[in-house]
Give the backbone structure.
Amino acid sequence: MKALLRNTYKNRALALMALPGVVLAVLFSYVPMAGLVTAFKRFDYSAGIWGSPWVWFDNFKFLFSSHDLTFRMLRNTVGYYLLFTAVTTVLNVALAIALNEARGKRFAKIAQSLMILPRFISWVAVTFIVTALLDPKKGMFNHLLEQFGKNPVSWYTEPGYWPAILTIVVVWSSVGYGSVLYLSALAGMDEVFESAALDGASKWQQIWYITLPMLASLVCVLTLMGLGGIMTSNTGLFFQVTKNVGALYPATQTIDAYVLNALSSSNTSFGMTAAVTFFQSFVGFAMVFSVNMIVRRIEPEFALF
Amino acid sequence: MRTGRKPQKVQKGQIALHGVLGLYALACLLPVLLILIVSFSSEASINSKGFSFFPDGLTLEAYRYMLKFGGQVLRSYFVTIYETACGTMLSLLLCSMLGYALSRKDFALRGFLSVFLLITMLFNGGLFSNYVILSQAYHLRNNLLVLILPGAVSAFNIFIFRTFITANVPDSLVDAAKIDGAGEFRLFFVIVFPVLKPVLAAIGFMLAVGHWNEWQTAFLYIDDSRFATLQLMLIRIEKEIQYLLERINDLSPEEMRLFKKIPNEATRMAILMVTLGPIMFAYPFFQKHFVKGITIGAVKG
């Protein structure tokens, strides 16, 4: 202990450099962790966290007794997580291979730039774009449907279309960017491909026997590391792009969208919100922790700790 | 015979491949192009043909109207620029300093600090707890600090800085500078900071885009329109329209006046184009940096 203090005094300049960041981490990460106790209280905004009365597990009882809503939130959160992960992983890899195989390097470079672009467009802007396409009266899709003599669709009241719509939006916004990492893993492997080609391997054989196995461990690791986010969802997508329309909730309401809606409406009962975010934080932690153990086994340099 | 055929077959595959890639790239661009075209469309065209790639005639009306509506756009622009500039610089400075402190093997606190930061990556208070603490305990509602402080310390970025410094600043360099009498701060800002340039550019660009596009913080904590970011302004416009349209048939005279003042579709798209502009402009210059950044970030900190 004494040695530690002496060392810290000797390195006080370093400690001083670390200090502002540490203070902010305490204020904006650690204190909110402590704020999770609200899950065991009947939170009253005017009484504050400490002033609100304890109700212990009442909020959780309420959460698990309102089956339909809770089940729907969980199903949507986890379901979309799995759907998006599966679809984007396959497309990320496919796109990386396609870009890598393309002979016109200049062309591939420009195409890739355009594909990454959507990643940098804000979700509010994406909302405007989706509206321009799907607006019941002025949207482009309904005008096209009418031109082909079909009936217009009331997109914002039919939940059935939204799993597909949301998946398309996610693919559009993330796949170009997501493929960058895989592409950089493939770069510099040209010699392997050349020798394989000399040995008479066809393009498909090369992809199947060389490229895919080479990417497999990266796919595994990234998928595993992503699992920590299984309880979270992008509010930009599920709250903004869906315009938080009640009619769409069966297909679009995730935990985060529910919480954001509760916070932004003049709702005064936060019991369920507090309980569900508590649940979310703990499941998230358990996932990151256990997944990290697995990753450390198979690919130590990718493990967090 | 065989040697004659094979290159041709490869050629065909290549053409198909380039075609597919080109089409996908186009599909990525088209939605943005649609917004751009709508922003130049006349109101009459939007009313008759809807949002279309081929409007009846192009006009600058929307942009002219936006200038008239300009006060809020300009104010929001300043707030967003403030958030982006201050938020990015603050975060880069704090994270790089922490990363440097963690990289120094003779710093006894580094083990503790690493765990301290790691925990913030594993566990978080979640949306609700953060909201309660920030608004109720810290009174950050309608405070410009809420836009830059909460996300400023990112353990992930700190570990990237640490890894990069460990790999690129040899201990001997640090020792030599210390023998020459340089203090830690001189050492960091004069010797280490310049070496960090590529990481600073990569992380800085991602942070800046994140701040520019951030909407949820402003949405939750800012009511005062003087502090509304561009994204929040866009959300507000959209919300007001939704609200008024739902009750279009029984609006009070007051609301009717409000309704007339709301920018029409083309103008909204023009405002949107203006908010997208800076990113579209900066993007090509930073592309090679953030591509590098993604690769650095993927390998363990």
